[in-house]
């Protein structure tokens, strides 16, 4: 049995092969498709923030992390006054990123949804139903006093595990 002091935990990765642990060194990681580095995911369909601010989407192995996204293209607010329209725009952006990362919306495991008023909840939930079926992601919905711009009503961040929907 390996203990915490064995160097193998610091220099190798452990993956599961049919339920049994397999220790991968740096040479065999490529064969398993394991990446130990963080990869920035880009989509030509979603604008990125200016350099030096944040990343919209990062991938680590099969895990994908999406920053809080809003319905904003440059300086233009999309679907002003319409929480459903803003949520649809955001879910489409999430979908574009997941496609680029090799996944689907069914791989999303958590959503954090921020609205500037609970009266926007029905529109956001209706939009969510357009993008998810079956096992919906674990979700948190919170009302906040404001977002980055006063006309933005919704912000959503997500976490996905690529391939999770196939297991």
Overview in brief:
With about 170 residues, this protein is α+β, with helices and mostly antiparallel strands.
Q: What does this protein structure show overall?
A:
The chain is α+β, with helices and mostly antiparallel strands and 167 residues long. The protein folds into 2 domains: 1-36, no CATH class; 38-166, 60s Ribosomal Protein L30, Chain: A. Helices cover 25% and strands 30% of the residues. It has 4 helices and 10 strands, in the order αββαβββββαβαββ. It has helices spanning 8-11, 26-32, 83-101, 121-131, and strands at residues 13-17, 20-24, 38-40, 57-60, 63-69, 72-73, 76-77, 108-115, 138-143, 154-161. The strands form 3 sheets. A 6-stranded mixed β-sheet has the order 3-4-5-10-8-9, covered by helices on one side. The protein is globular and about 40 Å long. The model is unreliable at 1-14 and 24-31 (pLDDT under 50).
Structure keywords:
disordered N terminus, alpha+beta, six-stranded mixed beta sheet, globular, 60s Ribosomal Protein L30, Chain: A, two-stranded antiparallel sheet
Compile the SSE list and pairings:
Elements: H1 8-11, E1 13-17, E2 20-24, H2 26-32, E3 38-40, E4 57-60, E5 63-69, E6 72-73, E7 76-77, H3 83-101, E8 108-115, H4 121-131, E9 138-143, E10 154-161
Parallel strand pairs: 8-9
Antiparallel strand pairs: 1-2, 3-4, 4-5, 5-10, 6-7, 8-10
Helix pairs in contact: 3-4
């Amino acid at each position: 049995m390996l203990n915490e002091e064995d160097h193998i935990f610091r220099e190798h990765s452990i993956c599961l092969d049919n339920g049994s642990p397999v220790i991968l060194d740096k040479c065999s990681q490529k064969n398993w498709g394991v990446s130990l580095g963080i990869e920035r995911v880009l989509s030509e369909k979603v604008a990125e923030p200016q350099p030096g601010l944040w990343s919209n989407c990062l991938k680590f192995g099969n895990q994908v992390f999406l920053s809080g996204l809003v319905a904003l293209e440059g300086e233009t607010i999309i679907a002003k006054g319409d929480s459903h329209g803003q949520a649809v725009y955001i879910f489409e952006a999430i979908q574009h990123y997941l496609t680029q990362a090799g996944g689907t919306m069914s791989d999303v495991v958590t959503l954090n949804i921020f609205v500037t008023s609970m009266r926007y909840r029905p529109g956001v939930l209706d939009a969510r139903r357009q993008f998810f079926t079956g096992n919906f992601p674990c979700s948190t919905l919170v009302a906040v006093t404001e977002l980055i711009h006063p006309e933005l009503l919704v912000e959503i961040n997500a976490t996905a595990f690529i391939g999770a929907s196939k297991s």
